[in-house]
Structures are given as structure tokens and as C-alpha cells.
């Protein structure tokens, strides 16, 4: 599939006037916890910060566990597609990871984008030439939902090398929203990982390593068979095993059984081991940056 992957590293290749979403304004439910010290469990419970919601945290996450499967794509949905396949999906998601990183979007935007792509492809046959169009339209929707300052349509047209018109992007955006009945609120793997990280009181390096694992899973079609909470719990489990620096257990915070976590963690370990030599490198390159503590450089033997 000829999806254009543009060289966005240089300033001259960046779309003009993209607004940086990392504003000084704080979001109650979107705080970037990689840039702050992790509070203790007691601090979370006593905090007045609405992003911690200590008094209601258990009720909120119990609800998220109960609802996480409502808007999940069906594993094996690719069987309805005639001109695209699992590999093409992986190429698209890898490219979207790169776009997301270059636009400096919040983490939830990426996970919502992939969820929208998969749910739309589950219900609608898409020709090969329009797969990238579905990707940018899904990210546009996710940006409007999650970002304070969303990129404009012209920015998405630019990154596709003007392969599509603004009218076509808007038309596809409308088709996707109608197909999904405008249901966009769904618990993401990242949201569960934030919860587990706080409860386990892990350090920033460990948190970013776990983030690396769940983004590697995003690219892989086979991880659609796992619930977001399972992937997050498995990433935490594998991080604990590799880095050996977590003092708390997840047993009381997840509805997933130990067996379910170990099965998913095994698949994560396989993806992690092959990451260095994998054809698709957007996630690994992203986590080579100092911002993410260069966790992708860690040599792991499992």
C-alpha cells in the first residue's frame, strides 16, 4: 500500500501555523503525568487536584472496566475487507504514530484515533486508496474531541502531500461519525495505564517504558483480541518483570485474571523483542527521544 510517509523531521517540512497543543492551560482529565513527579496513593486520595479524583477514583475505574468492551472493534474484522489487510492497517497506524508525535498531540488523541479507525473499518469496506484518508479523518475527529488546539484540515492535507481535498476529508469525517453514531467516549489503554502507574507508584522511566509497550501494541492487529485494561495491566506486569522496581501489586486494581495478564504480556514481550528489527519503526523512534527517557534504547533479554 502506497501510504505516503513524509519526512517531518525538518522545520521546512512542517505544515505552517500548527498550534502547539501543549498549552500552559491544564486539563482536568488530560494532565501529562510524564512531566510531573508521581504522587503517593495517600497524596492522590487527599489531593484537591481534579485530575486525581481520589474520592471517586475506584468508582470511576470500576465503571471504565464495565464499559470498556462496548465500543471495541471486533477481532478479525479485517475479513470483511477486500482490498486492504492487516499489514496495511499496521502501516497506517505506524504513520499515524509519527504524525501524532510531530503534531505534539496529547496521548489520548492517538488511542482514540486508532479506536475510530478500527471501528470504522469493522463496519465499512474501504478501498486501498482511501485507507490513509480514513486515518487522517479519524485523527481529525480525535483532535477535535481531545485537544485544546486541534490542527486544521489544511495541516492534515499537507501531511498527505495533498492526496485529498478538504471537502473529501470533511465528507469522510461525516461518514465516520455517522457510522459510529457519534459515540466516541471509550476507555483507552493509556487511561488504564495512568491509573495502574499511580497505584503502583512507579517512577517516570518505568511509566514511559510501559507507554512504549502499549504503543507497540497499537500497531499490531492481533492485540485487538485484548481489552484495553488487559493490555495496560500486561504492560505494567512486563515493566515490573524487566525493571524490577515496582513495590505495589495490580491485583486489586484490575478485573483481569493473572492468567489473562500473562498471556497478553507474552505477546507484548514478543513484540518488544523484535521491535529493533521490525519494518515499522515510528513507535521505536518516538521512544528513543530524551522526552521519553530513551526507553526504546534499553536492551532487553526476556
From TrEMBL:
Residues 94-178, 191-270 form the Cyclin-like domain. PANTHER family: CYCLINS. It comes from the Eukaryota. Residues 187-301 form the Cyclin C-terminal domain. This is Uncharacterized protein. CDD domains: CYCLIN_CCNB1-like_rpt1. Keywords: Cell cycle, Cell division, Cyclin. Coiled coil: none annotated. Belongs to the cyclin family. SUPFAM superfamilies: Cyclin-like. InterPro entries: Cyclin, Cyclin-like_dom, Cyclin-like_sf, Cyclin_A/B-like, Cyclin_C-dom, Cyclin_N, Cyclins_cyclin-box. SMART domains: CYCLIN, Cyclin_C.
Amino acid at each position: 500500500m502506497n501510504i505516503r510517509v513524509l519526512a517531518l523531521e525538518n522545520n521546512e517540512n512542517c505544515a505552517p501555523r500548527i498550534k502547539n497543543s501543549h498549552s500552559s492551560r491544564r486539563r482536568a482529565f488530560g494532565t501529562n503525568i510524564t512531566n510531573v513527579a508521581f504522587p503517593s496513593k495517600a497524596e492522590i486520595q487527599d489531593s484537591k487536584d481534579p485530575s486525581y479524583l481520589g474520592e471517586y477514583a475506584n468508582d470511576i475505574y470500576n465503571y471504565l472496566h464495565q464499559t470498556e468492551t462496548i465500543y471495541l472493534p471486533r477481532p478479525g474484522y479485517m475479513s470483511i475487507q477486500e482490498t486492504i489487510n492487516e499489514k496495511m492497517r499496521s502501516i497506517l497506524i505506524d504513520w499515524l504514530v509519527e504524525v501524532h508525535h510531530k503534531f505534539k498531540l496529547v496521548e489520548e488523541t492517538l488511542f482514540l484515533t486508532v479506536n475510530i479507525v478500527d471501528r470504522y473499518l469493522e463496519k465499512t469496506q474501504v478501498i486501498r486508496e482511501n485507507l490513509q484518508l480514513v486515518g487522517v479523518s479519524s485523527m481529525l475527529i480525535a483532535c477535535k474531541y481531545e485537544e485544546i488546539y486541534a490542527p486544521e484540515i489544511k495541516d492534515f492535507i499537507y501531511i498527505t502531500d495533498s492526496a485529498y481535498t478538504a471537502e473529501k476529508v470533511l465528507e469522510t469525517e461525516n461518514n465516520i461519525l455517522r457510522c459510529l453514531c457519534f459515540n466516541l467516549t471509550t476507555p483507552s489503554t493509556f487511561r488504564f495505564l495512568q491509573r495502574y502507574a499511580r497505584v503502583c507508584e512507579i517512577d517516570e522511566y518505568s511509566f514511559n517504558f510501559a507507554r512504549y509497550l502499549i504503543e507497540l501494541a497499537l500497531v499490531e492487529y492481533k492485540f485487538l483480541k485484548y481489552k484495553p485494561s488487559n493490555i495496560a495491566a500486561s504492560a505494567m506486569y512486563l515493566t515490573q518483570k524487566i525493571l524490577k522496581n515496582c513495590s505495589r501489586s495490580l491485583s486489586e486494581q484490575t478485573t483481569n485474571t493473572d492468567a489473562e495478564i500473562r498471556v497478553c504480556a507474552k505477546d507484548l514481550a514478543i513484540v518488544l523483542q523484535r521491535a529493533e528489527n521490525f519494518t515499522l519503526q515510528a513507535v521505536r523512534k518516538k521512544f528513543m527521544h530524551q522526552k521519553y527517557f530513551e526507553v526504546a534504547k534499553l536492551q532487553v533479554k526476556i
